[in-house]
Amino acid sequence: GISVGTKAFLGTAKTARVPTGATAARRSTVMMAMSKSVPFLEQPKNCVGLPGSAEFDPLGFSDVIPIAFLQEAELKHGRICMLAALGFLVQELFTFGGSYFPKMPPVEAHEFYMKTGGMSQILLFIAGFEFLSCAAVYQTMLGKREPGYFGFDPLGLGKDEAAYKKFQVNEIKNGRLAMIAVGGFIHQYWATNQTVLDQLTNFHALTNPEAGVKTALDALVTLRQTF
């Protein structure tokens, strides 16, 4: 009682070739989702849809470390570096003066305050804040808190949902830029012996790159001896 059409369909199904081995691998590779920022690598599935995500995870950290923890860490470092980048520029223009706040390049100020105790005070305060934030991070790991959220919005900029999502992306992008900028400020000074604003207003080409490299290496040795 099977129709001719059904017999033909079943016959086709029986004789259809199922791709195996290399053929199947090639087809699955074609269908694999690729990263937007590194198109020759597989898309990191845990990074898809995150605020400001460029799907950049070439080492696969998001596969072994909870993504909420990575978001929290990136936001925290980005916020610190946004403050640091501003602080670099302000310190070139203004200091309190006196023996404890002398006028000096920001990079050299690090070593100065390591010797006078200022960096120890900063370390103590940061350790205190880190301890207080442990509870918030724990709530994040439980899925009860959004990464990086502390309810700090005195101007009410995030009341509108669309605006809130936009500011989320703005913050993460500016934080990433600031992390790169602070590293650039420090290495620029090691290489040129010029501060940021000084080089902008009185640019000197790096005529002696060997000296710049030596300065950078001397600074690294000093940091190593300090710690």
Automatic annotation (TrEMBL):
SUPFAM superfamilies: Chlorophyll a-b binding protein (SSF103511). GO terms for cellular component: chloroplast; membrane. Chlorophyll b 3 binds at residue 176. Keywords: Chlorophyll, Chloroplast, Chromophore, Membrane, Photosynthesis, Plastid, Transmembrane, Transmembrane helix. Its main location: plastid. Chlorophyll b 1 binds at residues 79, 142. It comes from the Eukaryota. One of its GO terms (biological process) is photosynthesis, light harvesting. GO terms for molecular function: chlorophyll binding. The chain crosses the membrane at residues 80-101, 121-138. Chlorophyll a binds at residues 62, 74, 77, 171, 174, 188. It is found in: Plastid, Chloroplast. It holds the Pfam family Chloroa_b-bind. This is Light-harvesting complex protein. It comes from Rhodosorus marinus.
